[in-house]
Amino acid sequence: MSFSFEITAETSPGNGAQARSGRITTPHGVIETPCFIPVGTKATVKSVLPESMKDLGAQALLANAYHLYLQPGPDVLDEAGGVGKFMNWDGPTFTDSGGFQVISLGVGFKKVLAMDAQTFRADDVMATKKERLAHVDDEGVTFKSHLDGSMHRFTPEISMQVQHQIGADIMFAFDECTTLHNTRGYQEGALDRTFAWAIRCLDEHKRLTEERSTHPYQALFGVIQGAQYEDLRRKASKDLGGMNSSGISFDGFGIGGALDKNALGTIVGWVNEELPREKPKHLLGIGAPEDLFVGVENGIDTFDCVLASRIARTSSVYTMTGRFNVSNAPYRKQFVPIDEECDCYTCTHYTRAYLHHLFRGKEILAATLATIHNERFIVRLVDQMRAAIADGSFSELKAQFLSRYTYKNPSST
Ligand SMILES: [Zn+2]
Prior knowledge:
The protein is α/β, with parallel strands linked by helices. It has 2 domains: 36-305, Queuine tRNA-ribosyltransferase-like (TIM Barrel, Alpha-Beta Barrel), CATH 3.20.20; 316-404, no CATH class. The chain has helices spanning 50-55, 65-70, 74-80, 83-86, 99-107, 156-166, 184-211, 230-241, 264-274, 289-297, 307-312, 345-349, 352-360, 364-390, 394-404; strands spanning 4-10, 20-26, 29-33, 35-38, 61-64, 93-96, 134-136, 141-144, 151-154, 170-172, 219-224, 252-255, 281-283, 302-305, 316-319, 322-325. The strands form 5 sheets. The chain has a 6-stranded parallel β-sheet. Strands 1-2-3 form a 3-stranded antiparallel β-sheet. The radius of gyration is 21 Å and the shape is globular. Zinc ion binds at residues 338-339, 342, 344, 346-347, 373, 376.
């Protein structure tokens, strides 16, 4: 078994922060943490070569089990030698469990779960009278493919089988992802299901690890749900943190589900207090710069998010002073880099005016250059946090960054 995690530095608890740096070792290499993991949903970071992702400092990539299950099918990835080999990425890889996509695409809500709790509605988006494409029961989820409308079913066992075939170094247990709109009663039921499914994931993971013993070891992270409720988040963390089945426990933990942006630090803090300190913690689907600081200072080791590449394709680019839309009129003749302080390939070779032209002309290269910049911006920002933890200047880095960075993204997934 070649998976391990070691903590290399921690901020002193006295200053209110609990940030830490560390090192995750996987069969495909080491991840220095805290670390931002760019998302390659369908085994590709859209419009960017894997070599470019490596050049911009990405240490690992995360693919989505749901999408790869539907297309090309997990058997193809298995025969290819795993997702990394299939996509020509020799570094560490992650897959999510498929739970989020199965339920969110099925229900039909957008991939935005970080909502404002102030907009709560009492009605339940999972109400049985509404037409929806995913049906959750105690055994699993039946859902309709967003590609062709065909019916499929995910259970904890199927998710484990699919993820073992995809072959990523780090996988996540199959969970029920709820939203802030679900009622308290529904959240409780979902948490019970996620608990039962976590045990089934460990059991199936153990079985598959033995059956496929010639394959590199794949680590399994449990997923903490519980929405905005302190007692539910703490209970889920205690339950999964201490869970042992078939003689194994989780290698790490993901914090998932409905996360109210305004309470992100509080919720992550509750979870971090309950989970075993020595195991890595991943914050699922969070990637806005200000949220990354909040996650790191509350003990998060890794993040993934599609935000950087998704907004890049709509011409929205990061700078140290905020986000702007490079296709807007003021940038037509600005012959300067997107961000003077950025060291990425795009900023060292191209101007805002050129990107403006590419976006206006609907040229494919626009997406490539903007994505390289945005991914580098986020990867580098988290790299700077890691260095700041090591030399004791994390609080200063956070204060300095937030004093200049003005754009506040309303939702971070
Ligand atoms: Zn750049």
